[in-house]
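Quick check before the chapter quiz. The format below is the same one you will see on the exam, so make sure you can read both the input and the output lines.
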Amino acid sequence: MYIVNERAEKIEILSRYRKLMQIVWTSASKEDLLMIRKAFTVAVNAHEGARRKSGEPYIYHPLEVARIAGEDLSLGPTAIVCALLHDVVEDTDYTLEDIKNIFNEKVAFIVDGLTKIKDVYDYTSNSLQSETFRKLLIAMGDDVRVILIKLCDRLHNMRTLDAMKPAKQLKIASETQFLYVPLAHRLGLYKFKQELEDLSTKYLNPAGYKEISEKLKSTKEEREKFVKDFCTPIEKTLKEKNFNFTISSRVKSITSILGKIEKKGVKFEEIYDIFAIRIILNVPQDIEKEACFSVYSIITSMYQQRQDRFRDWLTKPKSNGYEALHTTVMSSQGKWVEVQIRSKRMDEIAETGLAAHYKYKEVKEGELDKNLDSWLSKIRTLLDNKDTTAVDFVNDFKMNIVTDEITVFTPKGKSISLPFNSSVLDFAFNIHTDLGLNCIGAKVNYKVVPIDYKLHSADQVEIITSRIAHPEEQWLQMVRTPKAINEIKRYINTYKQGFKQAGQEKLKNKFETLKINWNENNIQRLVKALNLPNSTELYYKAFYDLITDNAVKSCFEKENDNSSWIFLRNPFKKHGKEDMSLREQIAEQIQENPEELLMKQDIDKLPYRTANCCNPLPGDDIVGLIREGAIEVHRTSCSHAVDEMSKYGNRIVKAKWRENEKISFLAGIKIKGIDRKGLLQEMARVISEVWNINIRSLAMESSEGTFEGNMMVYISDAANLQHLMDNISKIEGIETVARI
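Here is the expected output.
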């Protein structure tokens, strides 16, 4: 518990300010230092008396954000000023005009980009989080420092998330994992990406995070000894060759380790690349590639290389600017070890991304490097589509934060870069809009393929068109690039606009028959109830008689039916709030006590459902998401739940199992191993040893001495499921056992 001591707090504030000034003292001009001091004074006065959820003075936060921007990213004085002021307009009486008058127009612009949108949205249809993120990226297009400061802000918020309520923790952690982690990755901020990712996992998958943290801690001593033994001969050889270098080891992130365990069904002890050796060469930039390849040659002459794990990002750097050589070699202890080789400049770019480009004068402060500007132009294409909702924009944006790209060729040999997994349609739209709109297939390497064919690097592509071809809804599932997405949506929307008048007439007649008033408010209400993107879609469906009388009636009867919300156990009566609307009651309950909902023992009487995408069991960390008059329960680590929470934070209800339920839940297990006689019989015996288990289905396939099987079982909780999996994994011949 935080104890307020105002005298000690003032001393701490001044101490943090002095540390901040020390960071820029040697590089900033006298005018810059005066501007930082002025920003500090404004921030202190503006946030006076305000405290964070932890109880600490609020000014600690902007001071820490400014320190991260200056120290970790080496951003200049303007960025530090904006970091100190980033919450002033949002949380205090200062306006953007005040900031502009006190400082300058550039500072005001960046602060505006960092300020959240104030409008209130109906939680059933719009996403304040998505609108804010779209605004952030619009500002980033003019000055990339907006997003860099925002990442510093998000990093400090994640470091101090313990003080927040559980539902708020899930909302912020989901946003971070869904949007800010891939954005940090795309900007080349490896250190930020790894810390943000692991801090998100800490709240979204607390059990997994704790387990891996403890295993990393317990194996640290053994790992350090192995690294020393492996590196000693390398160090000796490099010194003999007169290289100026440093060697360090990097531990894989907790999130990456968990991902590998879940995807590959392996144990912690079976992951060979938990750590990597990093060799950093201090050499002039004009010979750094030659030096890296020389060291690579030395390493591979000392240790046997694993050919399929060699990665050359010197000849062709990653799209986020990452440069290095990676190779995996067999150590004398019989373990595979990944070795990363790069120069000091490459290392700084790998750790701090775009910010390091400023240090090496490769771009001017606030501008973009060539690769990032090319990527951002794709994002601008998404932003230019006025028909796209904020939520659609975020989904399209997420899909296009790609580091893996492929290079394909036109029939005349021109190279085209596309995101990994791009289709023939993506290629066609990239060449020309009309080519995409009339595409019916392609010749890839002289072989005819359909429009959804996934392209590979070095493919040569010739598009086949027809005047009678035109985009359809399912085309959106075949494309990845912003241009293709936007052009298909634009065509379909224009096409559907042609049915507006006729659809309106049909729907109006339906309203008159059902004695419902025909007005804009009721039309929008029906759009939301049917979960449609806009009224154009409503009229289009009405024209084709896809909207039934029952669907319309149920929409306008909902407000008189409170029965579907019984799960809240009418918590409003004791507060005398019976006269509040149902929506107001729910919103207030979630705001006041979002973590209070417990899964009761008589769960069969409650209107909640477990999600099919992750099948949560009692004992799992779970979250409730309000959907269509009920609560859908997910595991907190479920990717679908993270997606939803990252956009609709106000739909979150932190849920937890009150006690072990007397009900069996369906769960799935994937098993792989060596096939042998009697294996199935032994598995049946092991399963019978775990209580409360009934097998619903068991499907196994055997090929060339190995087998793979999926088993669906009814089981009481997560602990029993883990016990079952542990027992099965001990059977001779079983290689991996993973929860589906």
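If your answer matched, good. The chain has six domains: 6-115+142-164+171-184, 213-352, 380-496, 498-560, 563-657, 665-739.
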